[in-house]
Specification:
alpha+beta, Ubiquitin-like (UB roll), DNA polymerase, domain 1, 5 strands, 38% helix
Length: 153
């Protein structure tokens, strides 16, 4: 099946079988490898991208549901929230192994877009579905708080 996506601000024609997860189209067809495969069942968050501005798990988002959709991957995220999150991630040296970080960042950007001044509990609740094998949760939480401060400045 053929469809059109707006991927990171560029119109892309995509050919994929119905039932193909967006993750595989992004990685295999479009060769953008920043979005990671983690679990395949939408439990870990490594594959998080934005579809029409909302964070979704691309491993369980099927291509046939996306004709005409705006899809943003870690390679294309450029909002003020994204810049604040990226700055905070670097300032606080969040990354350990780094595998989950694109999904963590995409979720953090989604949170700060929706709620620029989240409480610790709101951060914990929103980021809950993003697993980090290295357990850098305290640094991730601190970086989301720092990004919120950057946005406020």
């Amino acid at each position: 099946m053929a469809l059109t996506l707006n991927l990171n601000g560029t119109t892309q024609e995509v050919e994929a079988e119905p039932g193909t997860p967006l993750l595989w189209v992004i990685r295999d067809e479009l060769k953008l490898t920043g979005t990671k495969f983690g679990c395949g069942v939408a439990s870990c968050g490594a594959c998080t991208v934005h579809v029409n501005g909302e964070p979704v798990r691309s491993c369980q988002t099927y291509i046939e549901d996306l004709d005409g959709a705006e899809v943003t991957t870690i390679e294309g995220i450029t909002s003020k929230e994204a810049k604040a999150v990226q700055q905070a991630w670097v300032e606080l040296d969040v990354v350990q192994c780094g595998y989950c970080q694109s999904g963590q960042i995409m979720s953090a950007v989604g949170l700060l877009t929706e709620n620029p001044k989240p409480s610790v509990d709101e951060i914990n609740d929103y980021m809950y579905g993003n697993a980090c094998r290295c357990a850098t949760y305290q640094r991730i939480r601190a970086a989301v708080q720092r990004a919120s401060e950057i946005l406020e400045a």
